[in-house]
Amino acid sequence: MIADRARLRVAKRIERLAGYRLSDRAFNGTMLETLSSGINYDSFDFAVREQILAFFNDFLRCDCRDCPLCGCPEKKFAQKVLELRENGLDHRQIASFLADEYGIEIFPADILSFLEDTVHVLEAISDISRLKGRQELAKKTDDHIRLIER
Questions:
Q1: Is the pLDDT of residue 17 over 90?
Q2: pLDDT for 81-100, tens place per residue?
Q3: Average per-residue pLDDT in the chain?
Q4: d(CA 129, CA 15)
Q5: Is residue 56 within 8 Å of 35, Cβ to Cβ?
């Protein structure tokens, strides 16, 4: 999944603040628990605090009992990447946006690979929808494919 490729720029700084070793992967369970534990981020400059707050608000807010280990953060991240692509950003622009907005580093090639895989899955959903007579679902799926491929 695309979330496995995402790394936080400030992971080492968060690790020092937390006082224990952390993976630099943004959606690693320990990292997610650390970010949502309410540690004091005042030692970071304003821009980094804003990135962490944006990350928290966009990916870690859910009502699941097992939050943040419920899988919602990873799903929200994948949805964000698709949303950015459907709004016209290419894979390089998406990588740049994620770095600026959330402090997430991810290779543009990983984003491109994720988008290609997503199109293949959507094509399969579209074909099965047509076979099952679910034309509305097939149309919606085709619309998403068109937006991703443009």
A1: no
A2: 999 999 999 999 999 999 99
A3: 93
A4: 47
A5: yes
User: Residues 115, 90: contact at Cβ < 8 Å?
Assistant: no
The residue with greater pLDDT, 66 or 13, is 13
Strand pairing class (7-8; 104-105): antiparallel
Which residues, listed in sequence order, are joined to residue 25 by a DSSP beta bridge? 7
User: How does DSSP assign 7-53, residue by residue?
Assistant: EETTHHHHHHHHTS---SBTT-HHHHHHHTTT---TTS-HHHHHHHH
CA distance 111 to 81: 8
Q: Which CA distances in Å does 126 have to 29, 98, 113, 121, 123?
A: 34, 29, 20, 9, 5
Residues with Cβ within 8 Å of residue 4, at least 6 apart in sequence: 25, 27
Query: Residue 5: which region, alpha, beta or left (left: phi > 0; alpha: psi -120 to 50)?
Result: alpha
What is the value of pTM for the model shown?
0.91
Taking Cα atoms as reference points, which of 11, 51, 9 lies closest to residue 32? 11
Nearest to 92 by CA among 111, 73, 115: 111
